[in-house]
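Exercise: predict the structure of this protein bound to fe (ii) ion.
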Amino acid sequence: MTGIRERLDVEAISAQPQAARHYLPGFGNHHVTEAVAGALPEGRNSPQRAPLGLYAEQLSGTAFTAPRHDNRRTWVYRIRPSAAHPPFRRIDSGMILASPITSAAPEPNRLRWDPRPFPDGRVTFVESLFTLGGTGDVRSHDGVAIHLYCATASMRDEYFVDSDGELLIVPQEGALILHTELGVLDVGPGDIVVIPRGIRFRVVLGDQRARGYILENYGRMLALPELGPIGANGLANHRDFLHPTAAYENREEPVTVIQKYLGNLWAADYDHSPLDVVGWHGNYAPYKYDLSRFMVIGTISFDHPDPSIYTVLTSQSGVPGTANADFVIFPPRWLVGETTFRPPWYHRNIMSEFMGLVHGVYDAKADGFVPGGASLHNCFTSHGADAATYDKASTTELVPQKVDNTLAFMFETRLPLIVSEQAMAAAYRQSDYDDVWAGIGRTFTL
Ligand code: FE2
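Solution:
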């Protein structure tokens, strides 16, 4: 009961109770939303005095002059301008690192981890952040970092803002209630949520504890992939991406805002909540997506397409068709390929593949890759089905098969991922991962 009482307490700070929450659909849409009627000015953005005594402020997620189809900005109307705060001071960054990660020699081996254990005691979402690895350079807005969270307590008087990258959060266990500057989002395992860089938020736990994965994207904002010959529909559809409606905290008491800036944490003591936006309009906003809405495309003849067919969101680099980061899922689907080895083929890939499992079993690994765990197959690292999976898949009768009750995902990047020293040293890293391929025998018949 303690967890439920705490959730009600931290929820009560918000002007928008859970029962009242609804969402604004449409990826990249321009939304208009007011928590109080009349909070938005009509026909202009910056009147001499904004309605209701609010302050007008523009939040630019792209350069002012970014092409119109890429341009992201939101106008917020808030109780105080966000400029009203004292200086930030450096605080301990805990287990958070930023690229370039130099604490360990780049690792060419295949790596796998068991689920990260939950900590003893009360640890919030931000306090629990653990950087597994990264690539690129946070200072040039290029590359990514991959973090794990493992929280047992809600953030009540602390808020977080990441100036370095947008955060794609993949809950694996436990519901999250994200109170953001632009409204509140409820998510749980099976959903993802994306918090654009620069947006303040705090994380309330919907259950006793919560664990999951985070892709911190330093590069171009995540977008829907091109569909090419697929046509106008399919994969993740625009209307299934949900943005929050305006909600604000009318809160005049000491709170702390923790900012991640070029890899370090800084804190400032505010005398009011930074979540004081009463109305907003624009297209730079957090959003969530239910991964069960993903329309899966695969073969209906033989072989199977490259796993890019499972891309939900992509952050493109400057190289055409080459992602700074892709978010790819392996959801429930039918396998019907005739005379086909149905699990992923053996392969090596210039792109680096980090995988996680939300629930169920991944079809290329019979065991050892469990929900909450992770694996990394870095640039040109050989991988594919383990011995047991190969034996079964190469001899089984090929009837239509439903891969069900499973949700694996991949963060794929164009640059090799550098694993942090703390992730290499973690007690839950499997030291014997290579053994899964040890039993693959010679079947050459000549
Ligand atoms: Fe792979």
